[in-house]
Structures are given as C-alpha cells and as structure tokens.
Amino acid sequence: MKNLQKLYLAGGCYWGMEELFRHMPGVVATQVGFSGGHIANVAYREVTTGTTGHAETLMVEFDADQVSLRHLLFEFFRVHNPTKPNQQGNDLGTQYRSAIFYTNDAQKAMAEQVIATVDASGQWGMPLVTTLEAFQAFYPAEEKHQKYIMQFPDGYTCHHRRNFDLGETA
User: pLDDT for 3-21, tens place per residue?
Assistant: First the structure.
C-alpha cells in the first residue's frame, strides 16, 4: 500500500513546474490548476486577469515512502525563482507568485524549516518572498493545460532545475 500525500505549490507558470515535478521519483501524479483566491470554480481566463487572488498552482501527489515532503520542497526552490514577488520569467502578476499551500500543521512546519534553510543558504542572493498559505481549495485547469509541455515540447517555460547547494541534509 502506498503512503500517498498531496502538496500544492505555486511557482509561476504551472506548465514548466509540472514538467519538472512529474519526472521526480516518488511522484505518482501531477495536475495544474488554481489555489489561493476568492472565486470558486475559477477558470484560466479569469485567473489571467490577476483579479481572482488565485495563483497558478501545481498539485503534486507523491508516495511519502519513496520521496519525502522535505525533498520535494527543496526541489521546489531549485526549479523556480522564489525571490521575485509576483513574477517568474516574463510572467507578471499575483497569479505567478511563489507560494506553498499547506494542508496541515506538519506541512506548514516543514515548509517553514525548508524556507529558513534555503534563505540561509544564500544561493539565491536575495531574500525569499515565498508565502505560506493555508490550503482552501484547488480548481483544476482546463484539460488543454494539463501536461502542456508534454503535448507541446517547445512550449513556453521559465523553469529549470538549478544545481544549488541549498543546505539540505539528510
């Protein structure tokens, strides 16, 4: 039996985040969508206005017996720029903010530890602006946005994995 858990991460355009996370060992499923806003059942076109409060979010379902929450959080800080408020690459707006939507106190505590460790590492050269937000809801994006880079290998992404030493220890 698998020890399945979910993690919700916002780090700019969700297409690139999904492509990187879906290949990680222990990740069993990914889905792109929206979290953190004030409109229920929101759609992509609404979120692009920047008025919904939602962020483009990646849901990561993982087997905690194969990969730790801690490891996934460190990878999150390697694949997006957590120092730019409301921006990733050319994408600007609150929908592209860096955020972790925690689902319980244990996730929140682990996220706080990882944020402090990454910030102290100095690898980004600037303070982190990643917010911790209590998970309220996740609204999946339209099907054409799911596994987008897989469908369109030359599609837009501003994400890549950096080989930073973020201070992660076993």
Answer: 999 999 999 989 899 999 9
CATH of 4-151, one of 3.40.50.10610, 3.30.420.270, 3.30.1060.10, 3.30.70.2190: 3.30.1060.10
Q: Is 13 tagged catalytic?
A: yes
Token pair for residue 87?
A: 């921006």
The pTM for the full model equals: 0.94
In three-state secondary structure terms, 91 is: strand
Three-state SS at 51: coil
The Cβ-side half-sphere exposure at 150, using a 13 Å CA radius, reads: 15
Both tokens of residue 46?
Answer: 């609404």
Question: Catalytic residue among 7, 10, 13, 79, which?
Answer: 13
